[in-house]
């Protein structure tokens, strides 16, 4: 038997296990290494601090999403030995492979910023990309009666890059509902030069911040947290009463230690095929890969469609004929029961228009609508029942310009 | 896109003023671009610029601030001192490299 070994069964890992399980030739077996017995619905973490989702619904058993016949190893990877075609786990187990897929994602690393995990961590300094962090922040927001709320991004890239903006929009909405919005200053602090990375979306999202009286502090690279304030490398100070930060994101430690990673331990791969630089039998997919597109579940999903077809060709000794275009598609919760939708890839920035059907929609791109909000809520069911099991989604994996307004033709309506 | 004469050389700039072709760059071009944004290039600036250009040639990407610190030996604090306020962008601009990928 030949062995495909997949490291990680988060969103990307689980999708490809399910897609490949049905398609691999009979002389192939699949093994999966995953430390956690529970699969977390990460998009739900945004809503948890505002009490808008039941925390009991966020986890399901990892096992339930792995098809029969797949061998499951519970453990943490110590290192990959690329020249020996084997993986060592922390408990000493050695697993050999013919083909390896790294899908170990990205992890928030508050330890990377001096002072972040010091006094005040999970009291006045919070993150919401972990279950524990989002729960602690829920508690903190319930007790928050007013003052300066600072929403902060440490360094790019981060997982789900729109989530901190969504958090700021939802915070505005939350304090309005409580009738204390006038007692709260909300500040959004980012290392980028605007609200978002790409010009059209950055302008649009920047307008949304200012309409909500959310102050924007740009080009801010945090060096340390000290005495209740963020301090930048150029000695700017942003004081806070409550800080909601997105820590530096890094890939799994073993990636760097196995010589496969960049400065942040993301796997250096070919942007079109996800083959690791210098290897013919190591791939990385999802957030674990160093790609110039969003680290997001939608990207993992679109990437998986391309990867599966390519992988079948690859193991048959054929050239891989598809190339991933970097397609990403994200709902942006805006508060007030509305959301935006953005759709983009490596080359094309998020543009206004209709999705997924040109001029029909029903979803509107870069525009706050009720339909987009309902789409975002419906996604939870789609995630568990369609996406993770690797069933076909009714949207194309390649980005399309159909229904979009090109950047140079956008008028004042934006 | 626009064609301009910088330090006696015809070069092409994109809408944001970055060079579109790193091979049109020369040290004289760098000095003039630096002057445009109020910088006078010291040896420390040159060390950063030279590393960034070599790294770009090898990897095809403008180095991030983190890469400048880890692989290029220029700390982020130093980068902010040398290229105030927007170090990654200003360095790329002077070094004739594409604007750093914003990492979407």
> Count the helices of chain A. How many?
7
Number of domains of chain B: 1
The Rg value of chain A, from CA coordinates, equals 21 Å
Low-confidence stretches of chain A: none
Distance between the termini of chain B: 23 Å
Largest interface pair: A-B, 21 and 18 residues
Mean pLDDT of chain B: 91
What percent strand of chain A?
A: 25-35%
Give a verbal description of the structure.
The complex is a heterodimer of chains A (414) and B (104). By secondary structure, chain A is α/β, with parallel strands linked by helices. Helix content of chain A is 23%, strand content 27%. Chain A folds into 3 domains: 2-106 and 251-315, FAD/NAD(P)-binding domain; 110-248, 3-Layer(bba) Sandwich (FAD/NAD(P)-binding domain), CATH 3.50.50.60; 328-409, no CATH class. Chain A has 7 helices and 26 strands. Chain A has a 5-stranded parallel β-sheet with strand order 5-2-1-9-21, covered by helices on one side. Chain A has a 5-stranded parallel β-sheet with strand order 11-18-12-13-14. The termini of chain A are far apart. The mean pLDDT of chain A is 95. Chain B is 47% helix and 10% strand. Chain B has 5 helices and 2 strands. The radius of gyration of chain B is 13 Å and the shape is globular. Chain B has one domain. With 104 residues, chain B is mainly alpha-helical. Chain B has helices at residues 27-36, 43-59, 65-70, 76-82, 87-95; strands at 2-6, 9-13. Chain B has a two-stranded antiparallel ribbon. The longest helix of chain B is centred in the middle third of the chain and has 17 residues, at 43-59. Classes of the chains: A alpha/beta (414), B mainly alpha (104). Chains A and B meet through loops of A and helix 3 and helix 4 of B.
